[in-house]
Design brief:
By secondary structure, the chain is of the alpha/beta class. It has two helices and five strands.
Length: 107
């Protein structure tokens, strides 16, 4: 892990929060991309480049079903969860006892 920005021999690390990511899981590569991104956040497998620590703070849009680009967490009734997506978060180890991830309700 790199030290971050160094000035006059004093090095600083900076917090990283990833905002707005997700998928509608429509295309065949959507799940592959999501898993690769999760691996990057977790700093594991083929994307563990040694240049960063795990990124455990993130936001996922959108709660409501009318999200056009990042997908949704609930179905059209605004009550029933999209379990395929939520299970993907768990299976990709994005939701665990050490993550600070947040699935945000926008409405």
């Amino acid at each position: 892990v790199k030290a971050g920005r160094c000035v006059a021999g004093v090095c600083h690390s900076f917090p990283i929060v990833v905002g707005e990511f997700g998928s509608n899981f429509v295309l065949a590569n959507d799940l592959l991309l999501f898993n690769s991104f999760a691996n990057y956040l977790n700093n594991v497998n083929a994307v563990a480049d040694g240049l960063h620590s795990s990124i455990t703070s993130w936001f996922c849009w959108s709660y409501n079903p009318d999200s056009g680009d990042t997908g949704r967490i609930v179905k059209n009734d605004l009550i029933t969860f999209e379990w395929t997506k939520l299970n993907c978060f768990v299976n990709c180890n994005l939701i665990n006892s050490t993550s600070n991830g947040l699935i945000l309700k926008l409405r």
